[in-house]
Amino acid sequence: MDPIVITHPSQLPSLGELPGYPHDRAVLLVDPSGFDIKYVINPHMEGNVGAVDHAAARDQWLRLRDACADAGLEVSVLPGDAAFPDLVFVANQGLPVLRPDGSRRVIASRMHATQRRGEVPIVSAWHAARGVDVAHIPGFEGLPFEGTGDATFVPGRRILVAGYGFRTDPALLGAAAALAEAPTVALRLVDPRFYHLDTCLQVIDAERALYVPEAFDEDARVMLAALFPRLSEVPLAEAVDLLSCNGWSPDGRTFIVQAGAHATNAAARALGLTVIEVPTGEFLKSGGSVYCLKLGLPW
Length: 299
Ligand code: ARG
Description:
With about 300 residues, the chain is α/β, with parallel strands linked by helices. The chain is about 20% helix and about 20% strand. The chain has helices spanning about 55-70, 120-130, 175-180, 220-225, 235-240, 260-270, 280-285, and strands spanning about 5, 25-30, 75-80, 95-100, 105-110, 135, 150-155, 155-165, 185-190, 200-205, 210, 230-235, 255-260, 275-280, 295. The two termini are about 25 Å apart. It binds arginine.
């Protein structure tokens, strides 16, 4: 099938006919040495400029690193950079794509905020040094695309699920879909507290996902229900206060998530997942948690 952007439930492809797609096998993290809050580009950052406890942030990040290693992932760590206080949120600078021929590609992001634009060449250089094809979306000058913050493959199905409205512009999703070589379901985000798809949708596999219904428009909710037979709700309060929908299941068995999100944990367990709680409170002040702090690699 030719890559295509799906914006309405009537356009969904026949899911059973899609080829497979693997879970992540490795993970890239960025050392939190440069992490800080120096500007406000999402509602969670308001009132938090200068409020990071750096020792606590390092402890929390080390817990996350260990949880990734315990899940059996190969862990790589890129140094931090004080010039880029959000570089630690390494979900955002690109979208890894395992191509149908087995080769590796990363679609480079174009960050919405000027303060974050210099992060992309840093992460792209790391991929390129490992032989990965770093692809740039052609055209659409000035329009943003924020990597796995807003776009994710579905393990088990070669289809991309993308969010738009705050950080990613829907106009360039067709060009991104062509580079991803996958049909792309475009979901409109409607609440600025859920400014990235990864704050309000966690795809586990072709059957299961967790989501925050209030973060999506009606067409998006209908498409999610059609895509995932077992779609569970994350309650709004936990999803806002603890970014509990920003957890991550690297393997379809475990779910690594901000500590203390009891209702979200229960929903994840009901989906058959083993919950691993890690504290990410210093990063929540910047609008990020587990999922944002890592880049999953399907190779
Ligand atoms: N302060 C960062 C920003 O607003 C947080 C990014 C969180 N990342 C994510 N994938 N949701 O850009």
